[in-house]
């Protein structure tokens, strides 16, 4: 550890908290990263955390022979909510492999093509809502509305459920409870563990109530499906969780595990995609030239097709680059943890014992000037044209994590977000509020705070 730089001011007991803020741990780490270099450590309340963002070291941590996902910090704090669900399961828990094998076909091409029509349906509810706001000259709440959209999308496609988000003026109570548990899980990292029950007494009680609410919502949903006698092989995620046996072992998910998985997918399946769409819309509004180029692509590829087909989404190459570039600057799951599977030496320089772990700061890896150049802070979708991607080293763009435990919903998220950006670009000109400056809130995931846009309906857009 002594080889790894750390901040100069260290308080007894509290550790490196000078200049740190409780509500923006990730953005603080980015500041430290710039000062301390490609690997550094921070101490908080008796624990030493190692952060890595240099491209060479991050690539080494992606070596699945020597490293694996580490369930720690924020992820471990979600165990009371998500238990051994896919995202929070320890590598050695048998339910990980079981659920992974049973649910992976739910993200195949064929499955995705089946979700496409439902995605279009939910997007139409968003554009109805935005048409009304646009016509009345009102600005729209981008993160709020993207959260409604992505929650309805995963609920519809995965579970045949309708939260009615667009018919409500306030967020659905499920969303409020979810944001509560995410915020609480993050706050647990900002107080000394032994004092947490005392310091966070009130918050802990609210968190228990939030978890109860999530459990109840999910139990109702499962009960309704069981009462309806399954969906007779429509093969959505819930169907797979309830009906599908493992192809080799014949094993099924237990009712308790199904509950964990439903919560996992409802949360993991919308919060990060909502942020990604929101950042992309922010950058499109700030860069009219880029928006015009993306819009021209949509017009060219989709023409007058009222409802673009599944195949027509992946053809929006430039729109997809806008999304990638937004996820580069603000990967909405901003870090992931890796642990050593055996005693090893990271990057040929830093010895690690078996079980030792480090956090990969994707948000900083994606800005490493050695990879992305001196203009790494600038928004430029052309960084993702085919030639540029081929010339870049592997493991330099990691918004979806890495290896066996990488995001299972990646194609789902990319399809949904590209489709929605295409539909919105085709329908509206996006105007920023003149005084808006990007501020990013953190609740384990990232979101542009207070982002509102003014919409102008384009001529001839339906
Ligand atoms: Mn997703 C894992 C980012 C969309 C379901 N997701 C991960 C990880 C990252 C991630 C990073 C790995 C975390 C780790 O190593 O600890 N996910 C994203 C981003 C988006 C996203 C940036 C959108 C943009 N994720 C989705 C969607 C779904 C989903 C959509 C579901 C429909 N993600 C998961 C699940 C896991 C995961 C489940 C855990 C996979 C596993 O460990 O097997």
What does this structure look like?
This protein is α+β, with helices and mostly antiparallel strands and 462 residues long. 49% of the residues lie in helices and 11% in strands. The strands form four sheets. The chain has a five-stranded mixed β-sheet. Strands 4-12-9 form a three-stranded antiparallel β-sheet. It has a two-stranded antiparallel sheet with strand order 6-7. Helix 7 (142-159) packs antiparallel against helix 12. It is globular, with a radius of gyration of 22 Å. The structure holds manganese protoporphyrin IX. Belongs to the cytochrome P450 family. Pfam families: p450 (PF00067).
List its salient traits:
single chain; 5-stranded mixed β-sheet; binds manganese protoporphyrin IX; 462 residues; 11% strand; 3-stranded antiparallel β-sheet
Give the oligomeric state: single chain
Helix-and-strand structural type: alpha+beta
- What is the alpha-carbon Rg in Å? 22 Å
Small molecules held by this entry: manganese protoporphyrin IX
Unreliable segments (pLDDT under 50, ≥5 consecutive)? none
Largest sheet: 5 strands, mixed
Protein name: Cytochrome
Keywords: Heme, Iron, Metal-binding, Monooxygenase, Oxidoreductase
Family: Belongs to the cytochrome P450 family.
Pfam family, one: p450
């Amino acid at each position: 550890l002594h080889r790894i730089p750390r901040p100069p001011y260290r308080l007894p007991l509290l550790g490196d908290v000078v200049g740190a803020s409780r509500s923006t741990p990730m953005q603080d780490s980015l500041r430290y990263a710039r000062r301390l270099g490609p690997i550094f450590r921070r101490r908080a309340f008796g624990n030493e955390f190692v952060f890595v963002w240099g491209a060479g070291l991050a690539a080494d941590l992606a070596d699945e022979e020597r490293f694996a996902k580490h369930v720690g910090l924020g992820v471990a704090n979600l165990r009371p909510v998500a238990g051994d669900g896919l995202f929070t399961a320890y590598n050695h828990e048998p339910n990980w492999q079981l659920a992974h094998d049973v649910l992976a076909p739910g993200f195949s091409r064929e499955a995705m093509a089946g979700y496409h029509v439902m995605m279009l349906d939910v997007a139409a509810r968003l554009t109805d809502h935005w048409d009304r706001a646009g016509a009345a000259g009102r600005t729209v709440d981008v993160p709020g509305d993207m959260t409604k959209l992505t929650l309805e999308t995963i609920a519809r496609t995965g579970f045949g459920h309708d939260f009615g988000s667009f018919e409500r003026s306030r967020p659905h109570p499920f969303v409020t409870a979810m944001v509560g548990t995410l915020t609480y899980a993050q706050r647990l990292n900002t107080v000394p563990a032994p004092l947490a029950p005392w310091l966070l007494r009130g918050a802990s009680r609210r968190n228990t109530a939030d978890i109860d609410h999530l459990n109840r919502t999910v139990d109702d949903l499962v009960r309704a499906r069981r009462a309806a006698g399954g969906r007779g092989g429509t093969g959505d995620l819930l169907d797979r969780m309830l009906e599908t046996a493992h192809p080799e072992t014949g094993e099924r998910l237990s009712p308790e595990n199904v509950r964990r998985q439903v919560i996992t997918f409802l949360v993991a399946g919308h919060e990060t995609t909502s942020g990604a769409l929101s950042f992309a819309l922010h950058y499109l509004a700030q860069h009219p030239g880029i928006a015009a180029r993306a819009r021209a692509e949509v017009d060219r590829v989709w023409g007058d097709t009222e409802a673009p087909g599944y195949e027509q989404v992946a053809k929006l190459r430039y729109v997809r680059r806008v999304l990638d570039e937004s996820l580069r600057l603000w990967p909405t799951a901003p870090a992931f943890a890796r642990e050593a599977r055996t005693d090893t030496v990271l990057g040929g320089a830093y010895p690690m014992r078996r079980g030792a772990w480090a956090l990969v700061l994707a948000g900083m890896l994606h800005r490493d000037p050695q990879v992305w150049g001196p203009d790494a802070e600038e928004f430029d979708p052309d960084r993702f044209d085919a030639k540029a991607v081929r010339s870049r080293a592997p493991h330099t763009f990691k918004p979806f994590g890495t290896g066996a435990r990488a995001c299972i919903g990646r194609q789902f998220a990319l399809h949904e977000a590209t489709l929605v950006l295409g539909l919105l670009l085709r329908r509206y000109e996006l105007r920023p509020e003149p005084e808006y400056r990007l501020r990013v809130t953190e609740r384990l995931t990232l979101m542009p705070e207070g982002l509102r846009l003014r919409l102008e309906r384009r001529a001839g857009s339906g």
